[in-house]
Amino acid sequence: MPDMTVLDNYISESGPAAIVLRDELVPVEGPDGVFFPPTYAKGDEFPGGYNIDVPSTGVNVCLVDSVGSQANRIEPMFGREPYSKLVPQICIRAGEKTVNLLEAGHRAGDAIVRCSSLQKELHDAFLALLKGDAAPLASIAPTSLVFGVWDSRDTQAKAPRLLASTIRAYDVRRLTRSAQYVPAVEYVKDNVLDEPSDKATKDAYAERGFVHVPASGSHGGIIAAGGIRREATFSLAALRLLSAGSDGERTKLLRRYGLGIGLTAFTSNPSGYLRQGCNLVLDGSKPQPRRVDEVYPTGERKPFTLLHGAVLEYAAEAAKAFGLGASRTVDFDKESARKDIVGDPEKRGKGKKAKS
What we know:
Elements: E1 18-27, E2 39-40, E3 49-50, E4 52-53, E5 61-65, H1 67-74, E6 90-94, E7 97-100, H2 111-114, H3 119-130, H4 135-140, H5 142-147, E8 149-150, E9 158-159, E10 163-170, E11 172-181, H6 199-207, E12 213-224, E13 228-235, H7 236-239, H8 248-266, E14 273-275, E15 278-282, E16 290-295, E17 301-303, H9 308-322, E18 328-331, H10 334-342, H11 345-355
Parallel strand pairs: 6-18
Antiparallel strand pairs: 1-13, 1-15, 1-16, 2-3, 4-5, 5-10, 6-7, 8-9, 10-13, 11-12, 14-15, 16-17
Helix pairs in contact: 8-9
């Protein structure tokens, strides 16, 4: 059994402000390999496509994986062995599909859990969070405290991210690609199908693969001349803001539990396969492709040396000491969803009066 006081420096006010990680990454094809960042829909003067910022000075920066996307990749690890023993396994049945809370986009604030038999329990936990007691939420959805949550459609309670990770590429060159779809048969030319009589029919032929379809100048990936970096921060200063109300001993157990879960996620090695055409690994050509430091309020930096196995052992004991919440499977409630969609008539009425 690990000494549970050994990491209390991290939950102490005199401890580090954060632990930060920097990974130097490279495509599996090599440093000059072409890889594909995500594409985004246009809006708010953004033309759509790759998210590449072009500052007035310096090199451009391309977002390869956002904070939210990284969280959604890392958090589900707590649904698998051996990490599943660290948190309650809350599952919601919706029709023929069962969703683990760890995979819900908005975590404890997601519609799928809000419209279930857990609604009141979570509502009360969020109200407690607003009053400074994070323990009830930690008993149901502790990873929501680590990866951040906002009960935006009910109590408005928020918990900031303790762990944030982002991947960016620097000094990138954007490429394009073109393709040509060739049908197996010349359907119209060989009189297998009639010549389309209008644009709608012509578009349908193209959509269903009955005519040649060229695709020119589409997104062809990028080359990162300035390298690719994953930067992760585990904010210990934010962790120390969590409390169990005025109960000092319970607060200490809560913070140790959050520390254990957070460090477990922080020291894990998430998959570098982000999407088709984007498989990233540590850059073995660099003398130090990974650097992890404790950063103190004074600016002093010290190497962080804890290994994942030791962290996992600590996290298991911290979960036991705090008291692991009950695992369960509940059903999505259609009636609750209908009421949620309609909303509270009284609140809507107040909103209309406020606008008039």
